[in-house]
Write a structure and sequence with these properties.
mainly alpha; elongated; single chain
């Protein structure tokens, strides 16, 4: 007959009499608080009932050492308190005090008043101790002895099967499970059998075991998930999806199955469908936090920030942890609700999960609000603590460019050049700084490195091509680079301007003019582009329109207005 093993944690000590030997009346909480400060003699004066209740509270709070102290006092006061004694032995084993645990186990096993259930529990504790000591053969021998009288003992069978499987004795492990099934066909045994078959890579047999498990336990979400996983291993994604959807059709409140289906759809980039699965799961579960996390992240990934805010707002009420608050704030920031985002970012512990990332986002908000010194201080603090925080390094390099501190930016980012994980945009920003300093060889070096990492980075393709054009070198290469950039972003006005300048430098003024006109159809408020337009018009013999274009550049606040005025008065070839 099956004996289901469960952890023995009685709510009230009613099965075993504990003798009261003190008259102090204290609550368990008071006992726990007092026991950490008073002497052992004081503890020994406490009532055994309250010692026991206080030990259970200590276990719930994770204070195992206090629980051991209280239970030790209790069993010393009342040697007939078997259940607390068993718990004491288990706690000693759990905290690594094996020698003490073994002493208590030996004493308990010799106790004539043990019930069959208690004796069995102690046997399992001793077997676990042997496993923790890596005495696997002794553990197997004791398991064999126990299983002779109780062949359908779930915990013992599971332990036996896992030891054998870890020793690569798969056939023996499977025979052991088959013996258990012959004694009593239970879903737990079918699950173990399936897991062993999967480890043996016998997916057909594993599938058969799981199908039998579903007959025995139709509500088993684990069986459905594992069957779906087998279908995926067999490269049958449609079958895998069908298994999960069929289970959800009759078990709408099955968050693990919803997770499995949502994850599968997400991996297939079917984001909208995944959102629908998690949304249905949320409605069915009434606010399962794991479902909400996945749903919120999918809305965030899909850039539906209004919905993401709605989900994360619900989540922070349940779990106000840094991870959730970060994405709540990031969603608000994406909606340009910067003040609300700032307040949430500032509530995240900088030393906790995503704490530094929150500081980076705060620096970004500072930057956007032109609080440059505040942004700089945040970024420098982050980099001081974590020099390889690339997002902070990237933002600081952008800040330096905005402040036209080109040499300072180059000095700060130079130590990053040896880092294989350097953000390509940092290299790009270094190229911008070198271009301002007219160090064109360094511009080429940086952009070549960027393109080695990302050959389709259109900004870098255009920048390098334009750099060649303004130097009037490698014009064929420059044209090829800019055409590649235009393949990524067709009709981009700046890229067309660069291409027009390549044609201008090569003397193909007609083609340059046609291309520059296309550029101005896209962008009509750039002073440099109108200066280029004027130069190209002049070379095409259209002197009056050229002067109008140069004047337009002046009207757009060109930085070289004096040179443009000289062009207007003396023509393109006038002394500048």
């Amino acid at each position: 007959m099956l004996i289901r093993q469960t952890a023995f944690i009685p709510a009230i000590l009613c099965a075993f009499a504990l003798t009261a030997c003190a008259t102090q009346q204290q609550t368990p909480a008071q006992i726990e608080e007092t026991a950490t400060t008073v002497t052992r003699a004081d503890v020994m004066q406490m009532d055994t009932r309250f010692l026991y209740l206080a030990s259970q509270d200590a276990v719930k709070d994770g204070n195992l050492e206090l629980a051991i102290e209280l239970l030790s006092a209790l069993v010393e006061k009342d040697e007939s308190a078997i259940t607390p004694h068993i718990q004491l032995a288990a706690l000693l084993l759990q905290t690594g005090r094996q020698a003490e645990a073994e002493q208590h186990l030996t004493a308990l096993l010799a106790e004539p008043t043990l019930s069959a259930e208690q004796h069995e529990e102690l046997q399992m504790t001793r077997i676990r101790m042997l496993v923790s000591q890596n005495k696997m053969n002794e553990a197997l021998a004791q398991l064999d002895a126990l299983l002779k009288s109780q062949p359908a003992h779930i915990m013992a069978r599971e332990m036996q099967a896992r030891i054998l499987a870890n020793q690569e004795r798969m056939d023996e492990a499977l025979r052991a499970i088959q013996e258990a099934i012959s004694a009593e066909d239970l879903p737990e045994f079918r699950l173990l059998q399936a897991q062993l078959f999967i480890k043996k890579n016998d997916l057909i047999q594993a599938k058969t075991s799981l199908q039998r498990m579903l007959i025995l336990e139709p509500d088993s979400d684990m069986a459905a998930i594992m069957l779906s996983g087998i279908a995926l291993k067999q490269n049958r994604p449609e079958e895998a999806e069908k298994i999960l959807r069929q289970f959800l059709a009759t078990h709408s409140e099955a968050p693990n199955v919803s997770h499995a289906l949502g994850k599968m759809l997400t991996e297939q980039n079917r984001i909208v469908e995944a959102i629908l699965v998690y949304r249905d799961a949320d409605n069915a579960s009434g606010g399962n936090s794991d479902i909400l996390k996945s749903l919120g992240m999918l809305y965030f990934r899909h850039q539906d920030f209004d919905k993401a805010v709605e989900i994360f707002a619900r989540l922070v009420k349940q779990e106000p942890i840094g991870h959730i608050r970060f994405y709540y704030a990031a969603s608000l920031e994406a909606l340009q609700k910067n003040q609300q985002a700032r307040e949430i970012y500032e509530s995240i512990n900088p030393a906790g999960p995503l704490g530094l990332e929150a500081q980076v986002r705060l620096a970004s908000i500072d930057f956007g609000e032109n609080k440059l010194k505040q942004a700089e201080n945040r970024l420098l603090n982050i980099i001081k603590e974590k020099p390889d925080q690339m997002e902070a390094q990237l933002m600081l390099s952008g800040l330096r460019l905005a402040q036209e501190q080109f040499q300072k930016m180059l000095t700060e980012t130079e130590p990053l050049l040896g880092n294989s994980n350097i953000h390509p945009q940092i290299l790009f920003n270094r190229a911008v700084a070198f271009e301002h300093l007219k160090q064109y060889d360094d511009v080429e070096t940086m952009l070549t490195r960027v393109l080695a990492k990302n050959p389709k980075y259109s900004e870098a393709l255009n920048f390098l091509g334009y750099t060649y054009a303004i130097q009037n070198i490698h014009l064929d290469k420059a044209e090829a680079l800019i055409i590649r950039a235009l393949q990524e972003k067709p009709k981009d006005g700046y890229y067309l301007d660069s291409l027009a300048w390549v044609y201008f430098q090569g003397g193909n003024y007609v083609k340059a003019l046609a291309t520059q006109k296309q550029a101005l159809e896209s962008i009509s408020n750039d002073a440099v582009m109108f200066e280029h337009y004027g130069d190209i018009l002049w070379k095409n013999g259209q002197t009056a329109p050229a002067r109008e274009a140069w004047q337009k550049a002046i009207d757009l606040n060109a930085v070289n207005s004096k040179q443009l005025k000289n062009k207007i008065s003396g023509g393109l070839d006038a002394k500048q």
